[in-house]
Target: SMC hinge domain-containing protein
Amino acid sequence: IEEISSRDLATQEAIDLLDRELDALNHTMEEVTGTVEKLTGLRTNLAEKYDHRLAQRDRLVAERNLLNERRAALAAEREFLDRLISSFEGLGEGVRNAVKAPCLAGRVNGVLADLVSADPEYLPALEAALEGSLGYIVVDSPEAARAGASHLAENQIGRAVLICADGADTPEPAPMPGPDDGILGPVVGFAQVEEKYQPL
Model:
C-alpha cells in the first residue's frame, strides 16, 4: 500500500508538472498568436500604403508627362513667335506706337499672333498661311481701328494694320479634297483661337 501510495504521489506530481508546462505553452501560443495578428495587420497597412504611394507616383508621372508636352508646345510657340517678330521688323515701330497710343488705351486685344495658336506640328502651316497678317493689331471696334490708323498717320510714327472682329462675317469654307489626296483640311481647322476672333 505504501508503494502504491508513493507511486500515486509521484504520478500526481508528474501530472502537475505537465499541467504547468501546458499552461506555459498555452500562454506562449497566445503571445505568438497576438504577435502574428499584429504583424498581419502591419503587413496589410504597409501594403495599403504601398498601393497608395504607387498610385500617387503614377499620377505624378502622368502630370510630369503632360507638363513636358506643354513645355514642348510652348517652346515651339516661342520659336514661332521669335521668327514672326524677326519677319515683321519693318512694322515693329508702328505696331509698338499704335499699341501705346492714348486713343487706343484699353481697346487693344493684342496682335493676331498672340490670339491664334496651334499644336506644334501644325505651327509651320499656320505661319505660312497667315504670314502676311499675324502682325495685325486686333482692336475692339472699327472706330478704334480708324483712330489708331489716324494717330500713326498724323504723327508719322510708323505703319500698322488694325482690324477688329466686330461685324466681320465668317466666310463659308471652300470645298476641300478628301484625305485620300493627302490633304488634312484647311489650316483654319487646326488653329486654336477664341470664338470671338474666329471671323478674323
Q: What stands out?
A: The chain has a mean pLDDT of 79. The beta strands are 108-111, 116-117, 137-139, 162-164, 192-193.
